[in-house]
């Protein structure tokens, strides 16, 4: 199996379409199709199932795609080592993260790491939890930052910390300063800023609502964490966010937060994930250690032991 055929095949599996993969590779679709046909002849198996809209890998195709991904990872690892042997401190790190991690990532971690390693560049994309895990599993991202992600065999957490969901309150709220956890039901009649229904945090809240037989009152629904923070600091209502999203506002005394008693909310965690079984380049390992030490998301909240 030649390198070009494997690279083209992996691009098609990721894109779900020969034409889309060809556009990304900047080659003709016929060239991609020819390489895949030759690869199938060499393997002796059909690797792609052709659908009305695109393609999906067969069982044999998934095995070949995994091999191609391992080969791509090993090539990147070799390139990293050769650069270091030549004294070249360069590279690109691809990160996928939830929007709530962005300020913490940039302000508390990447700013310092970039200064210490000026040759590293960063590609950052924001996505849902499912999209983050899929990108890491498929080799489209080196690192994923996700809040309370489901377990997957092809993605492993290398850093995690308990980050309970908090009720974020405007200054002067009657419950501000409470040291005891409060049930989510307590806030059922208050105007709230909520994330869209497909967001993981909203789904956590929805499970508590369903179990308790109540509904929160949405005054604002938006995927923007900045708008959630502004909503609360403007005194328009409350929000439900992990501490690392509002850490700077809490430190500046712009708002208050109280822990929630409901188990599913109090045990939520922040995770840094990579693809299972991947051997990490040295620069990537250093960055992971840096993020683990400096991001608020990976520090236990002050109220926890």
Topology overview:
Layout: H1 3-15, H2 18-25, H3 29-43, E1 48-51, E2 54-57, H4 59-85, E3 91-97, H5 102-116, E4 120-126, H6 129-137, E5 143-147, E6 155-162, E7 165-170, E8 191-194, H7 200-212, E9 217-221, H8 225-233, E10 238-242, H9 243-251, E11 255-259, H10 263-266, E12 269-275, H11 282-294
Parallel strand pairs: 3-4, 3-5, 8-9, 8-10
Antiparallel strand pairs: 1-2, 5-12, 6-12, 7-10, 7-11
Helix pairs in contact: 1-2, 1-3, 1-4, 2-3, 5-11
CATH topology of the largest domain: D-Maltodextrin-Binding Protein, domain 2
Spatially, the strands of the biggest sheet line up as 4-3-5-12-6
Secondary-structure element string: HHHEEHEHEHEEEEHEHEHEHEH
Query: Count of helical segments?
Result: 11
Radius of gyration: 23 Å
Q: Can you identify the CATH class of the largest domain?
A: Alpha Beta
User: Major β-sheet, in short?
Assistant: 5 strands, mixed
Return the structural class: alpha/beta
The amount of beta strand, in percent, is 15-25%
The CATH homologous superfamily of the largest domain is named Periplasmic binding protein-like II
- What percent of residues adopt helix (DSSP H or I)? 40-55%
The strand count comes to 12
């Amino acid at each position: 199996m030649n390198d070009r055929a494997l690279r083209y095949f992996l691009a098609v599996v990721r894109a779900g379409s020969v034409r889309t993969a060809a556009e990304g590779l900047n080659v003709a679709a016929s060239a991609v199709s020819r390489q895949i046909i030759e690869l199938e002849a060499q393997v002796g198996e059909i690797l792609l199932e052709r659908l009305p809209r695109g393609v999906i890998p067969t069982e044999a195709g998934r095995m070949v795609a995994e091999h191609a991904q391992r080969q791509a990872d090993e090539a990147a690892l070799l390139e990293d080592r050769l650069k270091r042997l030549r004294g070249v401190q360069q590279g690109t790190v691809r990160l996928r993260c939830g929007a709530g991690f962005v300020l913490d990532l940039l302000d508390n971690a990447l700013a310092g790491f970039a200064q210490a390693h000026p040759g590293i560049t960063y590609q950052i994309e924001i996505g849902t939890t499912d999209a983050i895990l899929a990108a890491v599993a498929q080799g489209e991202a080196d690192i994923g930052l996700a809040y309370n992600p489901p377990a997957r065999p092809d993605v492993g957490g290398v850093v995690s910390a308990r980050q309970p969901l908090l009720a974020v309150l405007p200054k002067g709220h009657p419950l501000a300063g409470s040291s005891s956890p409060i049930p989510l039901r307590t806030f059922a009649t208050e105007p709230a800023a909520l994330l869209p229904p497909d967001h993981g945090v909203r789904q956590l809240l929805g499970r508590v609502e369903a179990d308790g037989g109540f509904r929160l009152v949405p005054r604002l629904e938006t995927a923007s964490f900045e708008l959630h923070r502004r909503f609360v600091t403007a005194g328009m209502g409350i929000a439900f966010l992990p501490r690392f999203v509002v850490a700077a506002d809490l430190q500046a005394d712009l708002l208050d937060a109280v822990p929630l008693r409901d188990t599913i909310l109090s045990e939520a965690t922040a995770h840094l994930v990579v693809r299972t079984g991947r051997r990490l380049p040295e620069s990537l390992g250093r960055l992971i250690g840096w993020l683990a030490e400096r991001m608020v998301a990976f520090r236990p909240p002050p109220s926890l032991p």
